[in-house]
Backbone:
């Protein structure tokens, strides 16, 4: 079942985050994910949103996401993401109307 990874980011060190972002696609492409959205100015329609960026990705299933997020390549670049932004990351299962 398709899963969606949603990250809400609050920048703390833009230079570190930019280093992460510059290397992200080289790693991401290897794991067949799809980048669905990456927006530093989402329109807040209701409530408060104290973040600077939203990123949404999809993967074929949870195993595919975990292969990406636990890979040595991603763990290496994620040091800059963690140094550059506070994050809330959610993994959401897709909707299956059949069950």
Residues:
């Amino acid at each position: 079942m398709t899963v969606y990874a949603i990250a809400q980011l609050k920048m703390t060190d833009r230079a570190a985050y930019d280093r992460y972002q510059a290397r992200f696609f080289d790693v991401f492409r290897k794991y067949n994910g799809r980048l669905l959205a990456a927006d530093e100015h989402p329109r807040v329609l209701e409530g408060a949103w104290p973040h600077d960026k939203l990123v949404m990705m999809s993967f074929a299933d949870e195993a595919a996401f975990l292969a990406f997020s636990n890979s040595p390549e991603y763990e290496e670049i994620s040091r800059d993401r963690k140094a550059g932004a506070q994050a809330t990351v959610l993994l959401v299962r897709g909707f299956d109307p059949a069950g």
Q: What stands out?
A: The chain has one domain: 3-42+50-93. The radius of gyration is 14 Å. Helices lie at 14-28, 62-69, 72-84. The domain at 3-42+50-93 is CATH 3.30.70.100 (Alpha-Beta Plaits).
